[in-house]
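Data deposition worksheet. Section B asks for the primary sequence of the deposited chain exactly as it was used as input, without tags or linkers unless they were present during the calculation. Section C holds the resulting structure in token form. Section D is free text for depositor observations; keep each observation to a single sentence. Incomplete worksheets are returned to the depositor.
Section A, Depositor: J.P.
Section B:
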Amino acid sequence: MTPFTFATATRIVFGPGCSAQLPGLVAEFGTRPFVCTGATPERFGALLAGLDGSLAWPVAGEPTLDDVRAGVAAAREHGADVVVGLGGGAVLDAAKLIAALVPDDGDILDHLEVIGAGRPLLHAPLPFLAVPTTAGTGSEVTSNGVVTSPEHGVKVSMRSPAMLARVALVDPELTLGCPPAVTASSGLDALTQCLEPYVSPFANPLTDGFCTEGLRRAGRSLRRAYRHGDDVDARTDLALCSLLGGLALANAKLGAVHGLAGVIGGLTGAPHGLTCATLLVECCRGTVAALQEREPEHPALGRYAEAGALLSGTAGVQALLDWLAETVRELDVPTLGELGVTSGQYPQICRQAAAASSMKGNPIVLEEAELEAILSRCG
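Section C:
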């Protein structure tokens, strides 16, 4: 067994209706909450109304460097002493970054990976509470925030154990309003974030438990939640799958799906969850083929076969690939071309993805030609 460490949010509160606890939880940490929301904060007006002294800050899409800088300035002007993220993964990432940077003396570039100096935080972040309203990214229990730099054409992370949420408040009822397309993309992202850590060389007994339970729940409820968005039991399964995937990826890393998706999102602005959904089947197929050709005794092949049983009820690598392909068709996932990716961008995407941190969790190193073949099949 590979030695491991494990870190997550200080407190996790899960269950239908538990968002009613938000005002009391926020009051434990401060009296001037700065609340990052989605583009339509009125969707959760009743919840926001219970947060005395709060300022709502809408996040229209996946945050850019300037979005985060503007949020930091607004939070400081408000005198914020606690930050709440109430929304999808992009909103939670923005809130997490703002909470970390409000007490900081410098700029976000001082701390970013790849395009920045990557320096550690010098001051403790403001208390951060995460309240996801989609079941996808697991950002409520991860220690990094993802931000887009249009100038550099990349998505990069700022990360620190201090950025973990004080409270992750996961209420499946908050996802009931998600339209089918959002359910599909976020749900497939959540599934991916259970599958990639499960086959990762950094997997450990704790993350294995999270991944197997997450995959089992995705297998029985993803299609049902897509067809019947008001099914609370199905929504609960997906919310738990997302949470478990976040716990797993934060401690066992990801793989080729996220390595490619991060680069594609930075280059084209394609939504992260949708890009992951588009890449999922062919990244699995390409990784399995590389393992079978170059490392046929690799234990990850057995893990893929086990994932087939967890999702479909039938063990085997082919059962996994068949179930994933059928689900992607049923959930009407677009092609890369429909997301705005052109074949002329493939070489650049593959070069950048090969060096991406997410690729470190793939069970085998994929050559650039193999990555390009994956993109071609997704095109």
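Section D:
The domain at 11-174 is CATH 3.40.50.1970 (Rossmann fold).
The CA atoms of residues 213 and 352 lie 33 Å apart.
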